[in-house]
Amino acid sequence: MQTTIESRKTHLSHLQDVIAEAMSKVNAQKDTQLTRYIPGNYDGHLHHIKFLKLKKDNPQELEKLIKKHILEQNSLAALPSSIRSKSYLKKKRLYHYKFSRPQVDRLIQACEKAGAEYSNLIEPLRAPFQEKISLEEVAKLMKAMIRDKKIDKKLLATYERLLQEQTSIEQGQQ
């Protein structure tokens, strides 16, 4: 028991000498600055916490690494940091909200008041709440609108949309 403690102390003192020699070679103020010259498991240099763990738990291994990568090298170059994942490239989450009919109506009114830049949002907001109406029913409503000499822009937009849908269906069948 006594010999293992003494041998551990001699290893630590020898490690301190090696670290001091390496620090003077690379002009480092802290021993953890040596990590920039020791390669890690991945593409970059050894992490400073890994360095401290090696220093505490496995000083012989750390001594070998310092000798191999710092003391025995003629020219030293600092290694780059390890490559981290780019979080901004990750897929953004989609949030699903449930709106009531009055809330959607308020959103549509706000879009209409905001002007042309939000006009493209109005139709997708209305779509789930629109009743399924046929082209013939819209044509009847349009005739009634002409008789009353009134213009309903929503009815005209519905008529155009239904015509486009019907023509796209006919073209798809051909």
Jot down its keywords:
7 helices; 174 residues; 3 domains; mainly alpha
Number of domains: 3
Q: Write the element-wise H/E pattern from the N-terminal end onward.
A: HHHHHHH
Q: Distance between the terminal alpha carbons, to the nearest Å?
A: 92 Å
The radius of gyration computed from the alpha-carbon positions, rounded to a whole number of angstroms, is: 37 Å
Q: What's the tally of helices? A: 7
Quaternary state of the chains? single chain
Net shape: rod-shaped
Mean pLDDT across every amino acid position: 81
State the share of residues found in helices, binned by percent: 55-70%
**How would you classify the helix and strand content by structural class?**
mainly alpha
Q: What can be said about the biggest beta sheet?
A: none
- Unreliable stretches (pLDDT < 50, length at least 5) are none
How many runs of DSSP E, i.e. beta strands? 0
Percent in strands:
under 5%
